[in-house]
Amino acid sequence: MHTLLNFFARRGKRLKLVAHFNLINSIIKSSLLLTALFALHIFLMMHYEGLSVGDASWLTFTTATTVGYGDISAATTEGRLATILLLYLGGIFILARVVGDYFDYRMEVRDKKTKGLWSWKMNNHIVILNTPSFSGERYLQRLIQQFRCSTHYEDTTIYLLSRQFPNGLPDFITELDNVVHYHGNASNPEDLAAVCIDKASEIIVLTKDENDESSDGRTFDILHRLNDLNIDARVLAECVEDSNRKRLKTAGANILIRPIRAYPEMIVRAFVAPDSERIIENMFNSEDDEYRRFDIELKELSWSDIVTRLITHNVGIAVAYIDSKTSEMVYNPAADTVPDGKALITISKDNNYFTNDDVKKLCFIEGSLGDHNDK
């Protein structure tokens, strides 16, 4: 059934392509015929009416466009007959047909661009393959917004290849500027070529279902397609099952991340600062590193002193504190900041057994408690 649907989809695209080229051919043929009629009429006006090239051309164009200023007109019988046959009966009709075909072409092109049936010629752009099945439109919106917030990609064109938008992208995506899409299948080499995949600077392979392990199989197929096309771009792929990471890496993915839909900025960070995505991923599990909160009073010490004391006693790395007055979290303050805080946020090892009292005595009161990691 899937193969049959693909057959009819490809056949439909071919029929639309034939109609598109027929319209172009009609415009070209009509324009050539119109040019020949105009040239012949200009020649006859010069021959029968004794007009210069400029006057003969002026008479021809004002007559064909039905403007008819009347400052110059055919006076001889032969000249009038030539005007009736070449312009009144032929030229005006053909000109109207050319104009009509041109507007039809413009409408067709606009419709194709809207529905993702137009192949844009691009270079050094970002290609996003697939759309998440659940709330995919909003996820793409947030992802593109994160790219726009980065100085590296604020003006980079983003090309979406997906079957998700048959009637066009939502307004809240197109208003982000420099975003276009192609309605197609990321596993189809023809559709990949349509989005200029070989000229892209970054490629993102999104998984449709972040809870379905079989999604990694489809990602694997796409990566092999990209590998066959000798892609030079950096390829980021989402991996549902950690056991498939090595397999997808071998298939050609330069960057692998878990599909965490609430944080699309992970993808942007992975491109801007390679390998930082691994640090971000560790924040979402309880393995190895984890965030810890210590409810202790912070006064008089500078932030650099606090960070140094925590590291010296293997407590962890301070990343933020909770302001005593506003209860707001202050991230990564300047080194010379003297916090007035009521709590401290750190990244610590999962075998860190320090309590609030331990950290207070160890780092903020003279003396030492020894190595608490041996508890």
Offer a quick outline of the entry.
47% of the residues lie in helices and 14% in strands. With 375 residues, it is of the alpha/beta class.
- Radius of gyration, rounded? 34 Å
**CATH fold field value of the largest domain:** Rossmann fold
How many beta-strand elements? 10
> Per DSSP, what share of the residues sits in E-state strands of 2 or more residues?
5-15%
Distance between the termini: 62 Å
Count, helices: 12
Helical content band? 40-55%
- Helix and strand pattern: HHHEHEHEHEHEHEHHEHEEEH
As for the number of domains, it is 3
Q: How confident overall, as mean pLDDT?
A: 85
Could you say which overall geometry the principal axes of the C-alpha atoms support? elongated
Protein model, in words:
This protein is an alpha/beta fold and 375 residues long. It folds into 3 domains: 2-115, Helix Hairpins, CATH 1.10.287; 126-282, NAD(P)-binding Rossmann-like Domain (Rossmann fold); 289-374, Alpha-Beta Plaits. It has 12 helices and 10 strands. Strands 3-2-1-4-5-6 form a 6-stranded parallel beta sheet, with helices on both faces. Helix 4 (136-149) links the parallel strand 1 (126-129) and strand 2 (158-162). Helix 1 runs antiparallel to helix 3. Residues 1-12 and 367-375 have low confidence and may be disordered.
Strands, helices and their partners?
Elements: H1 2-48, H2 53-64, H3 77-115, E1 126-129, H4 136-149, E2 158-162, H5 171-174, E3 179-183, H6 189-194, E4 202-205, H7 215-228, E5 234-238, H8 245-251, E6 255-257, H9 265-272, H10 276-282, E7 289-294, H11 303-312, E8 317-323, E9 329-331, E10 341-349, H12 356-364
Parallel strand pairs: 1-2, 1-4, 2-3, 4-5, 5-6
Antiparallel strand pairs: 7-10, 8-9, 8-10
